[in-house]
Amino acid sequence: MFFNSRSVGLVLGAIIAVVTTLFLSLVPGISDIALLVALGISFSCSYLLVMSTMEFLVFRELGKMYEVLDKLHADDFSLIEEQVGESTNPIKLANKKIMSYASAKRKEIADLKRMEVYRREFLADVSHELKTPIFAAQGFVHTLLDGALEDEVIAKRFLKKAAKSLDGLDNMVHNLLSISQLESGDAKLVVERYDLREQVEEIFDQLENKADKKYVSLGFSEDTAPEVLVYADRRRIGHVMTNLIVNAIKYQDNKAGLVEVSLKEEDGKILVKVTDNGFGIPEEDVKRIFERFYRVEKSRAKSKGGNGLGLAIVRHILQAHGTQCFVKSSVGLGSTFSFYLSTEYFEEHDVQTELDKEEQNI
């Protein structure tokens, strides 16, 4: 028999009507017509009451539960999010808790699957990036051992190339350690008040030769004040500024390159901008440039050097400072990287919490 509110109502209504009629038949002098009327009334009332109760309290909620399970299988969480407000219906409350639990578990499984893919891609990227400098250094060393060591000129040239490959490998390992320390909280910020403009001027001096070779001019915007005081980790913000300025210099293709740094107070904070007139970044790549090992154009990035970790470190350092980096770019016109720094003392932010929030928004 098909199990629904009507069939349950019919069965229970019939049982109640029969039991009621049998009890009434024990009353002396009761007529058959009275028994038939009692049978009909008790059956009708019992049927309507049982059917309504089962329909609204049980079967309707069971139907919603199956609907939610179907949506969960299709990774659709809209029905869960639509359920707001409280109810006094115990079955509905139980149904709501079950659906919320199922939704949370489904999302957890989805997150684990996404993280599994991320780890797999990350290991593949690390293996690929480590393989290149190791194989290069290995090739140079074996060539020297096979006889090139006897020629002083060739030996010196090959040793320089091997040293360059090993330096790149060392730099990559240090960058990976920096990211790991920032994520785990092992690398604590040393927050102090200092002049950010003075720090950028020092970076300009260090990168002057590199900029001259690329015919790039380094300077400040006109609205930058003579003194810009911020609360931050001086060494790590120096790393951020150096990375952004080096990238701006590196990806230039004209004889009138310009890298301009703007330091402007806005809403009680310092808005930092690094603007260039270089290659620019395609729109589809802007959202991914802060991922580890990601390059806009891998072939061109290889020729420019680097390992795709610089902007990932920038992201982590800024997240530890409670801020983030924004990017505006147009292909062929240049790019602008911007972020805010505090003018008041602050506590270090939890980088891992920020990363979890980002993953949930992906």
Automatic annotation (TrEMBL):
Pfam family, one: HisKA
Signal peptide location: none
Alphabetized UniProt keyword annotations: Kinase, Membrane, Phosphoprotein, Transferase, Transmembrane, Transmembrane helix, Two-component regulatory system
One term of GO molecular function: kinase activity
TM ranges: 7-27, 33-59
Location of the Histidine kinase domain: 125-345
The enzyme's E.C. designation: 2.7.13.3
Taxonomic superkingdom: Bacteria
Reactions this protein catalyses: ATP + protein L-histidine = ADP + protein N-phospho-L-histidine
Protein name (record): histidine kinase
Gene: phoR
